[in-house]
Specification:
Blueprint (H helix, E strand, L loop, with lengths): L4 E6 L3 H12 L26 E8 L9 H4 L21 E3 L29 H8 L3 E4 L6 H14 L2 E4 L9 H9 L3 E3 L9 H14 L3 E11 L2 H5 L7 H12 L11 E8 L6 E11 L5 E11 H21 L4 E2 L1 H7 L9 H12 L6
Parallel strand pairs: 1-2, 1-4, 2-3, 4-5, 5-6, 6-11, 7-8
Antiparallel strand pairs: 7-9, 9-10
Length: about 375
């Protein structure tokens, strides 16, 4: 196809780091291979990973602003694993965005190496920066709880004529009013809250569906998570967790024939453990009833590197958004949102969502 997918990124944290590293890690991969480890789709609509080209990026941290994207992704407080160190200068300087509610106050109480430090640079005109860069897809990676900041960047996407992919649990694609704004502009919007390839939410919801399909009545369940990245540090402020808990809980509840009562389901971050860095440890417990009233109990422990775990999903979402732009499709992207997001506009079981994505890639209309 020969065309590039020009993306802008808001939030140059661990998830952004894994995404950018992946663009170069997979640069020499033989995409004719049937399966490439770490990728759900080698090619989508003719687009390879190497066709994704970052052209603008925004952050508020003093250690990232004004540095090239190729360097900023390795700057503190980022602490995800480095699997591709050699990245050439990308000629994409990090531009200062508005802080708004993007930085929790308690961050200042923690060491500089673990937390955000706000730059004194003046925020740029984001809409102008997007237009000047030629960005066509705007990817949001802001911290959990950044309600006003996410809405600000969504408005910027609309004004600049960019598709918007919301990787965080602020409800944009799944909000009727916001979705209508993108539909009116004939711009694609996907979201909300990225799933990982094999993470806490996808595992929990698949197990819930398995129990339901096999006739086991799930009566109680919890999901507890610990980690040592800025996401977990940020979420120590419980007021920032409202939409995150809704997103994760509804994702699991959607797989049950009858949702559990709130007192019988607890899903959410548990604690910040600095030495874990970007490693996320998840504990899932499920209690239910089988044939004859016999009890069924499952305890599961999952350990994953959090940010690389989401990068493959993000890359699929970006390429599907590009296909939508190529085809003149605006508004909600139902299939890729259901496949890659925890809180999509419409919840489907994961096998159905994958079939829908394949149909979309093949050129069939969204359901």
């Amino acid at each position: 196809m020969g065309k590039k997918i020009r993306i802008a990124i808001a939030g140059v944290g661990n998830c952004c780091s894994s995404l950018i590293q992946g663009l170069y890690y997979y640069k020499k991969v033989n995409f004719n291979d049937e399966l490439v480890p770490g990728l759900m789709h080698n090619i989508i609509g003719g687009y390879k990973i190497s066709d994704i080209k970052p052209v603008a990026a925004f952050d508020v941290d003093a250690r990232k602003v004004k540095r090239d994207l190729s360097e900023a992704i390795f700057a503190l407080p980022n602490n995800t694993m480095i699997f591709q160190r050699e990245i050439p200068n990308m000629a994409v300087p990090i531009q200062m965005g508005p802080v708004l509610d993007g930085v929790a106050q308690h961050m200042l109480e923690y060491p500089e190496g673990e937390s955000f430090r706000i730059s004194h640079e003046k925020p740029v005109n984001v809409v102008k920066a997007l237009k000047d860069s030629g960005a066509e897809i705007f990817v949001n990676y802001l911290p959990v709880g950044s309600e006003e900041a996410v809405k600000f960047y969504a408005r910027c996407a609309l004004e600049a004529g960019c598709a918007f992919i919301n990787m965080m649990p602020v409800f944009i694609a799944s909000n009727d009013d916001w979705a209508k704004k993108f539909e009116n502009k004939n711009l694609p919007v996907a979201g909300d809250d990225i799933k990982t390839m094999i993470g806490a939410t996808i595992t929990h919801r698949m197990l819930a569906k398995l129990w339901s399909d096999r006739g086991v009545k799930l009566e109680r369940t919890y999901q507890l998570n610990t980690g040592g990245n800025t996401d977990f540090l940020n979420m120590l402020e419980r007021l920032r967790l409202k939409s995150k808990k809704i997103s994760k809980t509804e994702s699991v509840q959607s797989q049950l024939p009858v949702p559990l009562e709130p007192k019988n389901i607890h899903i959410g971050p548990s604690d910040y453990v600095p030495w874990q860095k970007d490693n996320k440890i998840c504990f899932i417990r499920m209690e239910g009833t089988m044939f004859g009233g016999a009890p069924s109990v499952m305890d599961l422990r999952l350990s994953v590197e959090d940010s690389p775990n989401s990068a493959g999903c993000a890359i699929d979402a970006i390429r599907c958004a590009k296909l939508a732009l190529d085809r003149g499709i605006g508004g909600r992207l139902i299939s890729i949102s259901a496949y890659t997001m925890k809180h999509p506009p419409v919840q489907y079981s994961d096998n159905v969502a994958r079939e829908m994505v394949e149909e979309f890639i093949a050129g069939k209309r969204e359901r």
